[in-house]
């Protein structure tokens, strides 16, 4: 009994520093910032109102930016997910040197700084870049614009996100017992049926975790949209920076940040649901 | 025994290292004391190189006053330096900043604190060659003296543009007649695009209303027709309204003949032509009303440690000899009037050797860039 009390105290002492860090350096400033966006001066008096948010939604460029951000994020998550899942499946079920080689190669983007990757993508995709030159050789003259627009951002985000997504998905897939797959095969299920009925449901937790973390990561990413994106519409992170530093309107910037909190919160809820489902499953 | 020897050995090494470091620490302030004048300079690497390699060695040779330069790359920390000078003034101490070269708005920020020396021909003889109506002097509240400048000018490809526009309105007409052959960079990424925007704003509102120190957000309402005008140009801009990021991207489009006309910085245009990065057919010309320009200015704190040396350096910098170095190195404008420059320098810059429009103050600049993003680029077709 006494030893459990002591353990409890030690545990609490270990948990407190990060807890206070979270409270005082993240939660309190965030709450203050959100309150600040609601505080408006009206004829000399401070009142609480949604005026800033109304202004934000009346500004066409900001409205478009929010929509653009969500669309680009969803598209990037979807494409990353499809490619990473295929890669993870291949690495999980295939044996041989190709699979080993791929297993080593796919993590490379994880070790390349985003700034460098973004500049590489620009030179690769731009008007007279590598892709355009290749297409020129096979006779395609009118290359579509691949960079400084949504396409460029999605391509670069996908490139940068694949390693992480594949790693998490692969970890989930490796937790599936071979016996389950073999027994599905034994009762006559084809590859697709096995995937849909056994692999996909058993890997659902890893899938939810991957998708929600990818969503939050891409939603808040700055370097890639800043370097690879176009003038307009811009992703919210870039717009926030512009309003904060270039346009001297930090209030709009914080309001936008609050809005992105809400959007990221939705993905966060999915993550929490996914994790708690895993824990309940483990019990 | 052996162990003790090793301890002695390591202790010796440690002492030696500490000693060397102590010397290094001691050596830095020691050199500072020897320096006759400490210059705080800001700008891009080309400015740093010009001071390091050309101006400072020549000044030291001619005057045998030692110089020490603190360089603020891209003006980073410019505000902190002003704060530091103000703090020294308030506590009644001297400051090690003997001369501060920065954006005029930062000089203006310290003007009300009385931290700057008024520069006239009495304390800096060559100040008489400076036009005190230059935007740098006005924006800095009269305390900043220009020593370099550059302006945005119009670059056009004479192979395709036979009769270049002479006025801003003629540029607008040309853009509509030649769709897809003109662009300007996103104003928040570069000064040349910003100049194109500001001159449009000045078309409907007086430049003087925005270049001073006062700020009233309501005044920006006068910009609405200009923003609508720029928005209406969008379908005729290169690639259906593509505004590149940065000055260099525009120069590259001109170089590849993707576009035939664009606003560019005079200094960058001239240096690109010199290096052969732009075809010889590209010509630079200033239009009426002129594009905006203006650059940094120099101010000298009243409580500078070596104020006399600071004033002496400024006076030297305004001689036609030093100004010729500045103009040639930066391909920009001199701080003194063109008429005091040697004839060969004036001839080289004949197309652009005239005045430029003043920049709006920092707050109006921020508003203009935001409104451009909201109403021109971000508004959809």
UniProtKB/TrEMBL annotation, chain B:
The chain crosses the membrane at residues 7-28. InterPro entries: SBP. It comes from the Bacteria. This is Extracellular solute-binding protein. It comes from Candidatus Segetimicrobium genomatis. It holds the Pfam family SBP_bac_8. Keywords: Membrane, Transmembrane, Transmembrane helix.
């Amino acid at each position: 009994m006494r030893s459990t009390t002591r353990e409890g105290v030690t545990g609490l002492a270990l948990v407190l520093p990060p807890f206070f860090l979270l409270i005082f350096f993240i939660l309190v400033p965030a709450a203050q910032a959100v309150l600040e966006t609601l505080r408006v001066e009206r004829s000399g008096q401070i009142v609480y109102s949604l005026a800033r948010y109304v202004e934000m939604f009346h500004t066409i460029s900001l409205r478009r930016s929010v929509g653009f951000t969500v669309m680009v994020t969803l598209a990037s998550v979807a494409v990353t997910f499809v490619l990473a899942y295929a890669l993870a499946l291949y690495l999980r079920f295939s044996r041989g040197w190709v699979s080993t080689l791929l297993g080593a190669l796919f993590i490379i983007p994880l070790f390349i700084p985003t700034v460098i990757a973004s500049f590489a993508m620009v030179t690769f995709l731009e008007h007279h870049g590598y892709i355009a030159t290749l297409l020129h050789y096979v006779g395609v003259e009118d290359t579509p614009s691949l960079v400084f627009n949504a396409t460029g951002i999605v391509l670069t985000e996908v490139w940068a996100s694949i390693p992480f997504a594949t790693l998490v998905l692969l970890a989930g897939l490796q937790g599936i017992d071979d016996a389950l797959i073999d027994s599905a095969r034994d009762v006559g299920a084809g590859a697709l049926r096995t995937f849909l009925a056994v692999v996909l449901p058993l890997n659902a937790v890893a899938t939810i975790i991957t998708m929600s973390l990818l969503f939050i990561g891409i939603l808040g990413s700055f370097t890639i949209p800043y370097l690879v994106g176009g003038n307009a519409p811009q992703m919210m992170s870039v717009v926030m920076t512009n309003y904060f530093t270039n346009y001297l309107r930090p209030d709009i910037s914080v309001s936008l940040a609050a809005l992105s909190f809400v959007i990221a919160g939705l993905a966060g809820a999915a993550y929490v649901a996914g994790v708690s489902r895993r824990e309940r499953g483990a019990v | 025994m052996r162990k003790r020897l090793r301890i002695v050995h390591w202790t010796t090494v440690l002492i030696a290292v500490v000693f060397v470091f102590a010397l290094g620490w001691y050596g830095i302030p020691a050199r500072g004391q020897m320096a006759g004048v400490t210059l705080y300079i800001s700008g891009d690497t080309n400015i740093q190189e010009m001071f390091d390699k050309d101006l400072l060695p020549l000044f030291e040779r001619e005057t045998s006053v030692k110089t020490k330069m603190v360089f603020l790359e891209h003006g980073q920390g410019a505000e902190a330096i002003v704060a530091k000078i103000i703090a020294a003034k308030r506590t009644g101490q001297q400051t090690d900043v003997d001369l501060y070269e920065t954006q005029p708005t930062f000089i203006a920020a310290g003007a009300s604190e009385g931290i700057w020396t008024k520069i006239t021909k009495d304390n800096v003889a060559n100040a008489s060659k400076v036009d005190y109506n230059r935007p740098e002097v006005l924006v800095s509240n009269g305390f900043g003296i220009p020593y370099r400048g550059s302006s945005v000018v119009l670059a056009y490809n004479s192979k395709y543009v036979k009769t270049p526009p002479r006025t801003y309105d003629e540029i607008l007409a040309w853009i509509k007649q030649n769709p897809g052959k003109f662009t300007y960079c996103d104003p928040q990424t570069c000064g040349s695009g910003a100049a194109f925007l500001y001159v449009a704003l000045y078309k409907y509102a007086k430049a003087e209303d925005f270049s001073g120190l006062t700020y009233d957000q309501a005044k920006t309402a006068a910009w609405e027709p200009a923003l609508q005008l720029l928005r209406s140009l969008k379908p005729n801009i290169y690639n259906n309204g593509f505004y590149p990021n940065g000055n260099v991207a525009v120069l590259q489009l001109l170089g590849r003949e993707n576009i035939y006309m664009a606003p560019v910085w005079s200094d960058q245009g001239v240096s690109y032509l010199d290096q052969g990065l732009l075809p010889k057919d590209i010509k630079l010309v200033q239009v009426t009303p002129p594009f905006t320009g203006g650059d940094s200015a120099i101010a000298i704190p009243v409580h500078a440690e070596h104020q006399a040396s600071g004033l002496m350096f400024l006076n030297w910098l305004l001689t036609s000899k030093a100004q010729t170095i500045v103009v040639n190195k930066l391909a920009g404008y001199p701080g003194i009037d063109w008429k005091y420059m040697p004839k060969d320098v004036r001839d080289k810059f004949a197309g652009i050797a005239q005045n430029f429009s003043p920049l709006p103050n920092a707050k109006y600049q921020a508003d203009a860039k935001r409104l451009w993003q909201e109403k021109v680029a971000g508004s959809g077709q």
